[in-house]
Amino acid sequence: MGNDKAVTVNVTTVAGDAERRRTFSTLSTSTTSSLVSVKSRRPPHVGSTEKVRELVRLALTRLRVLLSERNGTRKPISQKGLFAYNYVEPLFNWWGANYRVLLTQCLGRVEARDAFGSATKLVNGASHNYVGFYKATAEAERLQRLCLEMLPVSESDAVPFLRDETHQAIAKFLGADFCFTTSTGYGSNYIALPALVDCATVVIMDENCHNSMFTGVFLGICPNLRKFKHNNMDHLETLLSGCIDATDNIIVAIEGLYSMEADVPPLDEIHRLKKEYGFTLYCDEAHSFLSLGKTGRGCLEYWNDYHPENPLPWDLIDIRTGTLSKAVGGIGGIIVGKGQFQESVRERIENLDEQENASLPSSTMAQTLWVLGQPARISRSLQRLANISRSCREELERFGIFVYGDIGTPVLPVYTGRPSVSAKLSYALRCAGLLATPVCTPAVPFWESRVRINLSADFTDEEVNRLVEAVIRAAASVGICRSPSSVRFLFQTDEESFTVEEDPEEAERSYDWVRGLIKMDATMGPTSQQRQLFDTTCGPRILEIGHKSRVQYGIGAGGARWICGTFPPHLAVEKLIATATGMQAGLTYADASIGLASTIAALSRPLLGYTKHYLLFERGASQFVRDGIMMAPKKDAPTLLSYIDLFQLVQQVRKLSRSNQRLCLTVYVRVGEDSAHHLLSNVLEEIATITGPESSMTILLHCTSHYLNPRELISFPCRSNIHVLVCGSFNRIFGLPAGFLTGPESLIRELRYTSRGYMFTTSPPPFVMDMLRAALEWNLSTD
């Protein structure tokens, strides 16, 4: 701790410190006034001088990008792409020094490498390992090994015993009538909200809700969406009173824990409004599931813990969604709720064109049951997590650092104001030994940029103190707090008592339970086509690579790439799939179907230098193509043109070119084994010729075949004004759950920032990506 004096204060379970222990007991049962006093705080204001400084900083950043460009560098062709290229990428990665490639599991300490190859061990404030279950015990590792050896990686229908038990366990844990699981947390809102929205529905949503929730509403029939100011119940009531006479089907959508603000919704006021207006309450518990409440049951339990004198009824929330990629440490989503919504959600799932969108990986099922089977460990971890949070908040605020959020929440968003200061603080924290994420627009308001630090019960006392020390020193270095020369209070607990299991047989019972289910599915479950494909294309050698990778990196990525960082297998797969498809660059999606929809939505944007944009797609195309069109922002949306067959596609392009020599087109084309390959090749060449050199055309080739490279089936034009993208599913090729997109480097870089299914969802599991890496290397070596 340098030369600073330190005063040790015990803050949890040390027997002789009853007074401090009573303080936390009071905090855990405080009245509404305690939370109101926290919620009433407002972040500092960015003054005019600071705003001018920021604009100068951004101008200098733009100049530095310009000076570093090499001859032949192709820039993005849209406004959003240019913004990411000129400002987001260089500042977020701090010119490569804050680029993060994770070389170990996302535990309390993580080893991260920057863009220059320098690796350091850091306290991990970017993971979502809230309750500390990422670290695999010997029993957990045996379960995961058994899963990968005996079951398909992700085919829920082929593991009915494991799937049904997972659904029942989650529903029981959350006191719900039903549970469905999805491939990602993003997918849970993608599926659930459209199932609830009809032509008479009005959805009123907190403006700070996750992107996937807005996407879900846009996909509903005749969506009628209204937004209320964050946690502003007066505004919510005004909206409710304005539509109560027009419909009796109102959904109010909130989050259990807003991760960028670290606060929970005012559930007492929501309860009052629900009794008066009779709406359906929809809550995304992505960050609150297994991180809030004494037993991890989310925001409602957390609220009642703080208000024992006036608890709210458990049936306040009608339907919940959440993710298994954060506290659980796998990947996948959940939809739970009251029985009246069950058939609507089931019907939506059954009508999906691609069922892999609703398939939960077997490894995540095993991990979920393993976690939920240890309630004593969960409660013990959550008590430690809450105490770590309170201690960190108190200490940081003592030094004048503004931290958003409520008492005891496991996220510390540190206010910086200016986006460049957010980027600078994140880099300064890394230099001080802490990995933390800079956050700016569009995730938060431009002048309320911040750095988000996630906490974990897995942190040792030393790591908690290092975290606080790093924040204080880094914040002082960028000028947002007082001098760090004041007396520090250290976090200290009886760590030994924390690691001693209250119920030594709890883990053993959980292990036996899950192991039995895995063996039942392996011996009595239906035949898995996915597993057969994997065994045919990959085999035992690649299976062993998956085992080794899981031991090194864990079973889950720990969160979205832009939050946590990425792993070497992800980078390798992106490079290899680009090579395999003959492209410059690639990116991967955890869910190929959502990836396709998200790509189409991101491509439906205006291009620089063009006044009008046309999007041509095949009539009768996949549901996810139509979803992508519906997800696209309505402002500056392209003109939609559908074609029945390839002949009509040529006719439409020819007609457009006659009236405009400077065309801007995006063309979706499916390429499968059943396609007329020779005709398709000729058509693509013809429409490229028709449009001419002054036009810009993006061709999205959706590969539904078992071939890696569409060039094995078709040829396509190669011109400077033609941008070809290839998207596909690794599940179709290798039996491994992930999607890919390849194309020109400038366009892929843009889509990393603008594609919602990439930006706002969890990365594919590293062990899956490592198996894909090996499969791709083998495939390329045999060509």
From TrEMBL:
Catalytic activity line of the entry: L-serine + hexadecanoyl-CoA + H(+) = 3-oxosphinganine + CO2 + CoA
Cofactor requirements of the protein: pyridoxal 5'-phosphate
Residue ranges constituting the Aminotransferase class I/classII large domain according to the UniProt record: 164-471, 722-776
Keywords: Pyridoxal phosphate, Transferase
Alphabetized GO MF terms: pyridoxal phosphate binding; serine C-palmitoyltransferase activity
Enzyme class, broadest EC rank: transferase
InterPro entries in the record: Aminotrans_II_pyridoxalP_BS, Aminotransferase_I/II_large, AON_synthase_class-II, PyrdxlP-dep_Trfase, PyrdxlP-dep_Trfase_major, PyrdxlP-dep_Trfase_small
EC number of this enzyme: 2.3.1.50
Record carries keyword Transferase: yes
Family the UniProt entry places it in: Belongs to the class-II pyridoxal-phosphate-dependent aminotransferase family.
Protein name per the record: serine C-palmitoyltransferase
